């Protein structure tokens, strides 16, 4: 059976060139980067080279503005909690969008429960943030704003520069979660006015378990992990040298590959969207054009997304409904509810996220299988039967 993996937003395979770059750091150059012996110095050098490469790719002023963490989840938690703990309840006022990844949203909700001031800013039907509500929150004192760059479920790309300008006019700090967009679309932290930015490696053909946080010079956070003072005192724990080296290699490869890849994926994505929308009662979630090059998210009336995913899987197509993390819960996706869908509409969604090993033939195969799966499920759906009897 043909196997078509289209869940690249959940995670990506490690690029063989990344794996090769990591290999020596498992068994030969395995030293602890804090040791002053030869192995330690080799490990330290590899980390600092990796830091410089990634910092340069995002156009940071200096490599010291980037710290390595264990994941994007950790980086995001560090932003919100690190800021709150550093500044205290009286001087912390956070604003986040309602379509953030759970690791921002749940950290923000927890801080709110702990007594910090937190606002949740709504989005429109496409997932674009409501700039008027955000402006009111900032004018009312919000001093840390966190808005996701490319949404992990519906792919919508937020107007980052406009948000950062609004923040800076009012002395607020701007953080963006770029786990889905970094290396897929151009990001220049200086030009875009980003003060802090979360990224990770496993969405970019790098290894799992390594992330980073860009923190513009001058911004102060408290660490979440106290210990030996690694990563400029912000993230104690022995560094994951192979992971960090792999992360930098994955980023380095994006230099030449990002642009052509984005163009190719956009063409595949648009072909997929056009073909899928020919299925009756199907809709695209997210913005038609302001979206990640590799993301397509649909909803199909009368049937459950989870059932579509299983139906596709039986035909060798690996997609997902909503985000990989949220699909473990029975609840409809908070992102789809935030763009105004009813719970039953939000349950009928399918995310197809493309990546570098997808071909035009994969899209043809999906477009051949998907209508059949949707049709089969609808035949079994009492909701569909009822609706067709009415017509
Ligand atoms: C936008 C976004 N933020 C954060 C995360 C969490 O990333 P990690 O798996 O590195 O913790 C993800 C991954 O699903 C994501 O898509």
Task: Describe this entry's structure for a reader.
The chain is α/β, with parallel strands linked by helices. It has two domains: 4-11 and 256-390, Aspartate Aminotransferase, domain 1, CATH 3.90.1150; 16-253, Aspartate Aminotransferase, domain 2 (3-Layer(aba) Sandwich), CATH 3.40.640. The protein has 14 helices and twelve strands. The chain has helices at residues 16-22, 24-27, 38-57, 72-87, 102-113, 131-139, 160-169, 189-192, 241-276, 305-314, 334-338, 343-346, 360-379, 382-390, and strands spanning 4-5, 66-69, 93-97, 117-121, 144-146, 173-177, 196-200, 211-215, 282-284, 295-300, 317-318, 349-353. The strands form three sheets. Strands 2-8-7-6-5-3-4 form a seven-stranded mixed beta sheet, sandwiched between helices. A three-stranded antiparallel beta sheet has the order 9-10-12. Strands 1-11 form a two-stranded parallel ribbon. β3, α5 and β4 form a beta-alpha-beta unit. α9 (241-276) packs across α13 (360-379) and α10 crosses α13 (360-379). The longest helix has 36 residues, at 241-276. The two termini are 38 Å apart. Pyridoxal-5'-phosphate (PLP) binds at residues 71-73, 101, 103, 148, 152, 177, 179-180, 200, 211, 325.
């Amino acid at each position: 059976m043909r196997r078509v993996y289209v869940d690249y937003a959940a995670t990506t395979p490690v690029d063989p060139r990344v794996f090769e770059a990591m290999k020596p750091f498992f068994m030969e150059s395995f030293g602890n980067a804090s040791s002053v012996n030869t192995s330690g110095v080799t490990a330290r050098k590899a980390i600092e080279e990796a830091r410089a490469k990634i910092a340069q790719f995002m156009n940071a002023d200096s490599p010291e503005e980037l710290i390595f963490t264990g994941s994007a989840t950790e980086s995001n938690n560090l932003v919100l909690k690190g800021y709150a703990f550093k500044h205290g309840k009286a001087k912390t006022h956070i604003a986040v969008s309602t379509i953030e990844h759970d690791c921002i949203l749940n950290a923000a909700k927890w801080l709110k429960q702990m007594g910090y001031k937190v606002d949740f800013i709504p989005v429109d039907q496409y997932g674009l943030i409501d700039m008027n509500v955000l402006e009111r929150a900032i004018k009312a004192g919000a001093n840390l704003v966190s808005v996701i760059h490319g949404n992990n479920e519906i792919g919508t790309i937020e107007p980052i520069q406009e948000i950062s300008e609004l923040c800076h006019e009012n002395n607020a700090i701007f953080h963006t979660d770029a786990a889905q967009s970094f290396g897929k679309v151009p990001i220049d932290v200086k030009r875009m006015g980003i003060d802090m930015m979360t990224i990770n490696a496993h969405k970019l053909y790098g290894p799992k378990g390594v992330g980073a946080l860009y923190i513009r010079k001058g911004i102060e956070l408290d660490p979440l992990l106290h210990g030996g003072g690694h990563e400029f005192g912000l993230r104690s724990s022995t560094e994951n040298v192979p992971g960090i080296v792999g992360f930098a290699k994955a980023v380095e490869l994006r230099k030449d590959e990002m642009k052509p890849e984005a163009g190719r994926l956009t063409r595949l994505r648009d072909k997929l969207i056009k073909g899928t929308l020919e299925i009756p009662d199907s809709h695209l979630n997210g913005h038609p054009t302001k979206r990640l090059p590799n993301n397509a998210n649909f909803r199909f009336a009368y049937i459950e997304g989870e059932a579509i995913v299983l139906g596709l899987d039986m035909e060798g197509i690996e997609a997902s409904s909503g985000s990989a993390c949220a699909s473990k819960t029975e609840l409809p996706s908070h992102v789809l509810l935030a763009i105004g869908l009813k719970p039953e509409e939000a349950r009928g969604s399918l995310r197809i996220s493309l990546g570098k090993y997808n071909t035009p033939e994969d899209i043809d195969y999906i477009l051949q299988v998907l209508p059949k799966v949707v049709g089969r499920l609808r035949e079994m759906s009492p909701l569909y039967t009822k609706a067709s009897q009415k017509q």
